[in-house]
Amino acid sequence: MSFWPSRMLKKGRGSWDDPCARATRGLRRPSLDARSWDHPSHPLKSDSSLRPCWTNFLSILRSSVNLSRADAVEAHPLVSSDVIGGGRKEKSRTSLVSTVVFSMLTLTLLSGCALFAPHEEVQLKKATVEELTALLSQREAAIQTMKGLFSAKVRGGIIPIASRVEGSLYYRRPSAMRLRGFTAVGGELFEFVQAGDQFRLRLPTMGRVLSGNPSDMSEMGKLARPFQLSVWAMGGLLGTGKITKEETVVLVEEGDRYRLEVFGPSPNGAPSMRRQLWFERQALHVVRENRLTESGAVEATIQYEDFRAIGDGHLLRPFQILLEDGKGQGSVQVTFHEMIPNQPLTATDLAQL
């Protein structure tokens, strides 16, 4: 297996998953109207009804101050310097009091703008066990292939080879996945390939190649933990954590969230809780997942945040994933920079076992 320059999506420097080229992609487009609000051509400037409450109020105050100055000039003609000197102290006191009163009125009126602004009430969706189970299956079926670029910050030494990783993801439904990790300058750290019930882990920096069954990664030793967490996290992103036929579920309502408890058969024959899924109740996204041991202890907690539209805009996926190890070995924060769903993958994208 060759190193970074020869195994890119497109050969040569500047390919799709080249860390040195990634910095120029994924930048958000500027606003459709980047003009300052007080620019003469800005819609808020040309139509005063569109201005914020405070801008209208400041316009009124400006007009009032100019009018007061004009009235003061007309009402008080020029007087001698002696009269001015004698009234300077009284005028300063009056000016100070006026400034304080003016400031208090300004703050009161500006506070009223926010106080009486309309507040939209959040509408919580209602769903049944059957609807949430079907929703998980739909989201899993919606992703046929996926490729993505991400960065990972590692805390607590959970990954012994690096504390910061730049990576790429390749996936083909139902269970073919390839993860590659690099240093910030493009040096290859690892390649993890999974296909069905087999995996292979290649570590160029250590000169090691490990393989086996994903359900039993004991051969990997300390390296097994971070890659098991990574597979679980990517499963939540890709939607592969759907409810299987052997599993049963119980739905619990927790305020603005639903908690779906997933049970599966255990070695002693009695069903045991394997997972817990939390759905927020506005778009019914899975925002948290607990993976449990056979004894019921939390093995890992995964949180999903920053949902964005990908592909044609109908698919929403989390661009930030936080993994907390239930055994206290550390955490991993994964931030995606780019996701491309349902595009053809080549044979080199998903390396063969």
Would you spell out the secondary-structure blueprint of this structure?
Layout: H1 19-22, H2 43-46, H3 53-75, H4 81-115, H5 129-142, E1 145-155, E2 164-172, E3 176-182, E4 188-195, E5 198-203, E6 208-212, H6 224-238, E7 248-254, E8 257-265, E9 271-280, E10 286-292, E11 298-310, E12 315-325, E13 331-341
Antiparallel strand pairs: 1-2, 1-13, 2-3, 3-4, 4-5, 5-6, 7-8, 8-9, 9-10, 10-11, 11-12, 12-13
Notable traits:
globular; alpha+beta; outer membrane lipoprotein receptor (LolB), chain A; 27% helix; 13-stranded antiparallel β-sheet; disordered N terminus; 353 residues; 6 helices
Q: Which class best fits the helix and strand makeup?
A: alpha+beta
The average pLDDT score comes to 75
What is the number of domains?
2
**Spatial shape:** globular
The CATH class assignment of the largest domain is Mainly Beta
Q: Considering DSSP H and I runs of 4 or more, what fraction of the residues is helical?
A: 25-40%
Number of strands: 13
CATH superfamily label of the largest domain: Lipoprotein localisation LolA/LolB/LppX
Query: How far do the termini sit from each other?
Result: 12 Å
CATH architecture classification of the largest domain: Clam
Which regions are unreliable across 5 or more consecutive residues at pLDDT < 50? Answer: 1-12, 23-55, 67-81
Number of helical runs?
Answer: 6
